[in-house]
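Sample pair:
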Amino acid sequence: KPTNAPKPTMSPTTTEYGTRYIPGQLSHTKLGVTLSTGLDIAIVAKKFNKVQLADGGVSQDLFHDRPDYGATFALSQNDTENPGGWIYVSNSELEDAKGGVGAVTFNADGTPVKYEMLQKGTERNCKSFI
């Protein structure tokens, strides 16, 4: 989940949820990735597959191929539709006008509630949308 930290830190971090992240303290491996204390990992999307959503349904769009450059955007706690959620956006680096930009919207619990292609028909749009 994105945070509103003013700058990167190498110090232990505690959030309002009590999660403690200790940079560089590699303590466990999950899904083949070695993680620092306080971090977790999950697969939320796979290319050419619909994204499983919190309500038990799936997205209409298939998750895009060749995701490149991504960014997260926090939603306000005052957002009436999804308070405290966030959006992950990434480019699809394909040629022949088969690329685009996709976005996964997460609720405050970190579960996808929406996936959609925001832009389609682009090619090699490296970092151009975000």
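The two ends are 18 Å apart (CA to CA).
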